[in-house]
Amino acid sequence: MKNLLILCGIILAIYVVYRIYKYQTLDEGLDKLIKNGAIILDVRTEKEYKTGHIAGSQNISLGEIRERYTELDKNKTYITVCSHGLRSVKVENILKEKGFKHIHNGGAWSDLQKSFNFQISEDKK
User: Fold this and answer.
1) 63: helix, coil or strand?
2) pLDDT for 15 beyond 80
3) pLDDT digits (tens, 9 = 90+) for 103-125
4) Are the C-beta atoms of 106 and 80 separated by less than 8 Å?
5) Which of the residues are catalytic?
6) Would you say 53 and 121 are in contact if contact means Cβ atoms under 8 Å apart?
7) Spatial distance between the Cα atoms of 79 and 24, rounded to a whole number of angstroms
8) Domain Rhodanese spans what residues (predicted)?
């Protein structure tokens, strides 16, 4: 019985930590940013991007962002997305280090797509 309570406590603690992390890293007000023309920056690999992405999004992977960030306009607003939200946080921080002021974490691209009913595109190549 004692082991069961300990296990339940550990599971609850992990869940709470996950929810706090998700709450702190996901930016609020994304709906207003999107309505005002924010660009979705998908930071997954090109291969992942081709399997499905938000129509009109731009793809620069986490592995390429340090070399390719100059392709982005520092005056525009970007919402970073990836498959689960971890890479998007990393890219958000990298771009802020590079002087970008309007960068926001959108988390998982599929969650953002569902929340705002974006069209999904797939590359058939």
Assistant:
1) coil
2) no
3) 999 989 888 888 887 778 777 55
4) yes
5) 82
6) yes
7) 15
8) 34-114
Residues 6+ apart with CB under 8 A from 114: none
| Pairing label, strands 103-108, 78-82 | parallel
Over its C-alpha atoms, the chain yields an Rg (Å, rounded) of 17
How far apart CA 107 and CA 35 sit, in angstroms, is 18
Closest CA to 116 of 44, 38, 62: 38
pLDDT on residue 7: 87
Domains and CATH numbers, the chain: 28-121 (3.40.250.10)
Q: Provide the token pair at 15.
A: 């869940």
For residues 76-83, give the mean pLDDT. Answer: 95
Structure-block tokens of residue 86? 């971890």
Six token digits for residue 98: 């590079």
Q: Which two tokens stand for residue 74?
A: 């520092």
**Whole-model pTM?**
0.76
The Cα 84–Cα 43 span in angstroms is 11
What is the rounded CA–CA span in Å between residue 46 and residue 51? 9
